[in-house]
Amino acid sequence: GLITDYGADVVVDSWHLTACLAARALRKPLVSIIQADMHPANRGFIWWKEPPPDIPTPVPALNRVLSDYGLPAIGKTEELHVGDLTLVAGTPETDPVPEKANVIHIGPILWQRPDAKLPEWIEALGKDRPLVWVYTGNPTYGPVAPWADSIVVLRSCAEALADEDVEVVLTTGHHPLTEEQVAAFPANFHYEAWLPGIAMAEKSDLVIHHGGHGSCMTGLWAGTPAVIIPTYSERESNARRVAAMGAGDIVLLTEAGPGEKQVSVEELRAKVRQVLSDASFRLNARRIAESIRAYGGAAEAARLIDSFAAGL
To answer: How far, in Å, CA of 129 to CA of 111, rounded?
Structure first.
């Protein structure tokens, strides 16, 4: 209804199944902006493992919907995310896709206000000892999506870094903590609910985060190595790719009980020390930063979409 009411000539989607279905049902050209692991030519977000033989699939239900609109059946859900023009938010190195896939890599889609700057108190940090930025994102989603909670990142970092010779800036991305939580942080922790990400990554010697695609790309754009604590499979996929490029390391979660996650504090502390002391991680991050900045990001995506629409 929305597409019809507005008389859309082109549908631009980023990983929304029903938008892709609606565009096809209305025979509208589709531009799709995806992460590489969403492309059907790839192995999905858990590409390092073989899938179980009995994994549930929505494909039969989707094919019934497609059939109702006279559209061909699919074999994989990911096929619906392939557009008439498909853009990958990354580079062939950060987000690889098989050569047979008809995609265009546009580089990271990142944004920061032109006038963004860090507060003065941060400028005084990192002069005498390394500056570590811990970004958790939303610490807890409550009953909506507990599997996505990042409170485990916050707690494990507070324990692992309390007595380390580093300064830590902790942000939660506009998700404020309580006064009691902030008061309990170690003396070397400095909390702010939100700070401009690119500027903070550029200021830091190390970034610790939950593995989101934007977080990974922000660190790589800044040329800053990372230690990543991925909280679910999509984030683990991103983290494994960063580690494979030599620009960081991973600390995987373990299950402490039903719905409870935990991190090895000893492993986290050891990997923070390693990434800070081994210059190869920073050198690799800086090399990748140079390569990804050759891509146009959001501006290039807009140019390609405009050109595609003009040619219809």
So the answer is: 29
